[in-house]
Amino acid sequence: MKNLYLATAFAFAPLLLSAEVAAEQAPISYDYVQLGAVQTDFADIPEFDAKGFQFKASKELGYNVFVEAMYFDASDDASGFDFDVDKWEVALGYVHRFSPSTAIDFQAGYGDIELGLSNSEESASTGTNYYMLESNVRHNITPNWEVFAGLEWQFWDEGSDQKAYNLGAQYKWNSVALGAEYTKYSDSEVFGLYARYQF
Q1: Which of 23, 46, 115, 193 has the greatest number of beta carbons closer than 10 A?
Q2: DSSP string, 71-134
């Protein structure tokens, strides 16, 4: 699946780069709704490549403060077993804009992750609540292209705490953006392609 995402990105890059980029520079936006396709892999259970969707929404409240909410659902089946991942997260953040094209944000939030494994005869599940801290740097390298990178820490009530880094890019025109994102946690990783509407 990772190779598919990379091939898609390279295939569309020449077309996107040749598109008109004469529009005025738009500031980094924290007002959006986003829906994407995702794949996640866990190091402890490599036989599963769970695929699904992720929904995310963000709203700036004023005074550079914003709220963000995310829901993630993915599943896979192999060797007669079904594997499911459900995750949600809410966060409060602060953004500092160095310029219309560059911003850094800081977030603190709360979330929950649930993992389930089942077959026709039995099932097992595990999960935990967690607190999180996150920071991202975002930069418009052209009026249409935005790149971003960040770090995240999750403090789990049960199980091992998680550290993560996040990399991504998106192409924007008017109020719509298409993007790709990769997040590497301590024992898992997530690849995603998404469409975003900024308001």
Answers
A1: 115
A2: EEEEEEEETTEEEEEEEEEEEEEEEEEEETTEEEEEEEEEEEEEEEEE-SS-EEEEEEEEEEEE
pLDDT of residue 159: 87
Q: What integer is the mean pLDDT of 147-162?
A: 96
Closest by alpha carbon to 95, among 141, 134, 132, 130? 134
Q: Please name each of the domains of the chain with its CATH number.
A: 30-198 (2.40.160.20)
Which amino acid, one-letter code, is at 114? E
* C-alpha–C-alpha distance, residues 54 and 98, integer Å: 29
Closest CA to 177 of 40, 58, 42, 1: 58
* pTM confidence score: 0.83
Diameter of the chain by CA atoms? 60
Tens digits of per-residue pLDDT, 51-104? Answer: 999 999 999 999 999 999 999 999 999 888 999 999 999 999 999 999 999 999
Residue 199 to residue 150: CA distance in whole angstroms: 23
Cα–Cα distances in angstroms (integers) from residue 37 to residues 5, 52, 53, 54, 96, in the given order: 11, 6, 5, 6, 29
Count of CB atoms within 10 A of residue 107's CB? 22
Give the separation between CA 18 and CA 16, rounded to whole angstroms.
5
The closest of 120, 130, 121 to 88, measured between CA atoms, is 130
